[in-house]
Amino acid sequence: MPFDMTNWAFTDVQLTETINQIDNTYGLVEELGWSPAEGVATTAIEIAITGNEIRILPNMPRGGQAAVTAPDTEKSHFIGLPFFPVQKTLTAADIQDWHSKANRTIQPKTMEQSLAEHMEKRRAEHDMTLEYIRLGALKGLLLDGAGSTLLNVFTAFAVTKKQINFQLDVVTTNVREKCNEVIKHIRDNLKGEIMSGVEVLVSRDFFDDLVSHANVEKFYVNWQNANQLAQPEFSTYGRVFTFGGLTFREYDASVTLYDSSQAQLVADGFGHALPVGTRDAYQTYFGPADTIDMANESGVDIYVTQEMLKHGTGVELKTQSAPLSVFRRPACLVELIKQ
């Protein structure tokens, strides 16, 4: 039966629900669940950093005077949520003379099949963008796919970026001492936050030089041997190794930018350390869609809207997302340099 645009069965709500039901399968940060997401009803959020530490309160007699806390010194910054719209028109050209194979038979391609392919492609693009934003949060510098700066967290909150040179090109480097320096810096800057450990996302060459270093190599060999007997931790993005209190995760992945160039999520020779198991230090926010009916509504991952073209020539589809990922304790972030 020929496709009839007047019987198009999908609403914006149904398309939005459908694209958000497609699993997000891209990104190590997504896989590890480090940056939980929440919807917000505004196009900007306020992030505040309190200078005073969270203190343990003293025991006071009931009915007596309450403990008096010192006034907080707070740095507040309003951050606009970036907006990523993508538009695509499905027309007769997307199904005319195209065929699909199913159940060992070849049949003409349907508009529904073309729509499903479009939804999967758009989902993948928005997911890669989200991971790019999340990695930017760990670096303290959020960029978009065109290379424009969305937010420099260190500048916004007047925090000095911490860098530690691991000097992996020097045979005598005490790598364990370097690891301790990372942990100490993070602990000193938790300021009342908690953590269950410290993890580092590193490039392939950083991982190679780390595990082949004279003061690390034997520990890595023992680690590998032990994991052959136990159930090893597996990551589709690279190798994993715990040393000196740090869990190093090789992140060998890249994304395609708007100009079709490739960008590594972790640049060669670098690593990015962060505390994990915190209460709310690393957060992702999704803003509302740019439509009248969704104004002031709590945001979701991705929205889909549609508009029928004249004379039944096709349907114009627009996907949009407004994600912002922020590490709310930027002083805890440490950038590692290989040499």
Total DSSP helices: 7
* Poorly predicted runs of 5 or more residues: 52-56
Please identify, by name, the CATH architecture. Alpha-Beta Complex
How many strand elements? Answer: 20
- Quote the distance from N terminus to C terminus: 65 Å
Largest sheet: 6 strands, mixed
Helix content: 10-25%
CATH topology name, in short, is: phage-related protein like fold
Radius of gyration: 25 Å
- What share of residues are in beta strands? 25-35%
Question: Main traits of this protein?
Answer:
6-stranded mixed beta sheet; 7 helices; alpha+beta; 339 residues; 3-stranded mixed beta sheet; globular
Layout: helices, strands, pairs:
Elements: H1 12-21, H2 28-32, E1 37-39, E2 44-50, E3 74-80, E4 84-91, E5 99-102, E6 105-108, H3 111-139, E7 141-143, E8 149-152, H4 153-156, E9 162-165, H5 175-188, E10 197-202, H6 204-211, H7 217-229, E11 240-243, E12 246-250, E13 254-256, E14 262-264, E15 270-276, E16 282-286, E17 303-308, E18 314-321, E19 323-327, E20 334-337
Parallel strand pairs: 1-16, 9-20, 10-12
Antiparallel strand pairs: 2-3, 4-18, 5-6, 7-8, 10-15, 11-12, 13-14, 15-20, 16-19, 17-18
Descriptive overview:
- The chain is of the alpha+beta class.
- It has a single domain, classed as phage-related protein like fold.
- The protein is built from seven helices and 20 strands.
- It is globular and about 75 Å long.
- It starts with 11 loop residues before the first helix and ends with a strand.
